[in-house]
Specification:
This protein is an all-alpha fold and 96 residues long. The chain has one domain. It has three helices and no strands. Helix 2 runs antiparallel to helix 3. It starts with a helix and ends in a 9-residue tail after the last helix.
Length: 96
């Protein structure tokens, strides 16, 4: 029970810190931050695949499969948003 309380406390603190850090990011740094977040989500996909492959229990396998799906959606959506943001900075017309 003590481990659960510790894990929930760390999760809550990470949530609050993450929220306040992200809200302070200026717009000029948003695209590089998105790219970094996509890389982290890619690591989550790999980790979830390892856990799903281990298959120690049905519950852990189900949670790992859900993590793979959600992280893959996050990676795909993040790259779409980053690409769209980078298109705003492209020059149009001759010589572009």
């Amino acid at each position: 029970m003590e481990q659960l309380i510790t894990a929930l406390t760390i999760f809550a603190l990470a949530t609050f810190i993450g929220y306040f850090v992200i809200t302070k990011v200026p717009p000029t740094l948003h695209t590089p931050l998105m790219s970094g977040t996509n890389a982290i989500s890619g690591i989550v996909v790999v980790g979830a695949l390892v856990v799903a492959g281990a298959g120690e229990s049905g519950l852990s396998q189900g949670i790992a499969i859900a993590a793979v799906i959600l992280a893959a959606i996050n990676v795909f959506g993040g790259f779409l948003v980053t690409d769209r943001m980078l298109q705003m900075f492209r020059r149009e017309g001759p010589g572009a």
